[in-house]
């Protein structure tokens, strides 16, 4: 993994962690829930925002790209698929692309648009 030194940006450290997790054989991105089923759990404070929503809202373009690569590697993980789906909407009916655009994160928005152009057709909360 790259960029793990003490002077590294937070985004670079998160990307390095994701890349290390991607390199683990058989890691599917799941954890066992209380019912014994495989799931990723969010607290209510996330308001339906996935890891990709959060990366986009922060403008972490490198993390968006790392998540795109991870999704391509972990096609067998439904939980990871939902967490890193560029078309997923949160409780505000916003996609990761909408968050990147609304907060002025052009590079993250461009990467999300190249990842899946269908995100441009998802209506915002006002139906636009």
Which characteristics define this entry?
two-stranded antiparallel sheet; mainly alpha; Ankyrin_rpt-contain_sf; 2 strands; double-stranded DNA binding; 128 residues; CMTA1 protein; single chain; transcription coregulator activity; globular; Ankyrin_rpt
Fold topology:
Layout lengths: L9 H14 L7 E2 L5 E2 L11 H8 L2 H13 L4 H6 L12 H7 L3 H10 L13
Helix pairs in contact: 1-3, 2-5, 3-6, 5-6
Organism: Urocynchramus pylzowi
InterPro entries: Ankyrin_rpt, Ankyrin_rpt-contain_sf
GO cellular component, one term: nucleus
Roughly how many Å apart are the termini?
41 Å
User: How does the helix and strand content classify structurally?
Assistant: mainly alpha
Number of helices: 6
Please estimate the helix content.
40-55%
Number of β-strand runs: 2
Task: Extract low-pLDDT stretches.
Answer: 1-6, 28-45
From N to C, what is the helix and strand string?
HEEHHHHH
Average pLDDT: 81
Which radius of gyration do the C-alpha atoms yield?
15 Å
Spatial strand arrangement across the major sheet: 1-2
Oligomeric state: single chain
| Major beta sheet summary | 2 strands, antiparallel
> How many structural domains in the coordinates?
1
Strand content: under 5%
Question: Which term fits the overall shape?
Answer: globular
């Amino acid at each position: 993994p790259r960029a793990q030194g003490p002077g590294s940006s937070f985004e670079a450290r998160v990307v390095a962690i994701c890349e290390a997790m991607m390199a683990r054989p058989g890691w599917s991105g799941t954890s066992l829930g209380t019912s014994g089923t495989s799931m990723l759990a969010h607290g209510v404070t996330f308001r339906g925002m996935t890891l990709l929503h959060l990366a986009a809202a922060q403008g972490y373009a490198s993390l968006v790209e790392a998540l795109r690569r991870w999704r391509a590697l972990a096609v067998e993980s439904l939980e990871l698929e939902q967490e890193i789906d560029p078309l997923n909407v949160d409780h505000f009916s916003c996609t990761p692309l909408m968050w990147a655009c609304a907060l002025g994160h052009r590079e993250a928005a461009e990467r999300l648009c190249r990842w899946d152009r269908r995100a441009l057709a998802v209506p915002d909360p006002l139906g636009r």
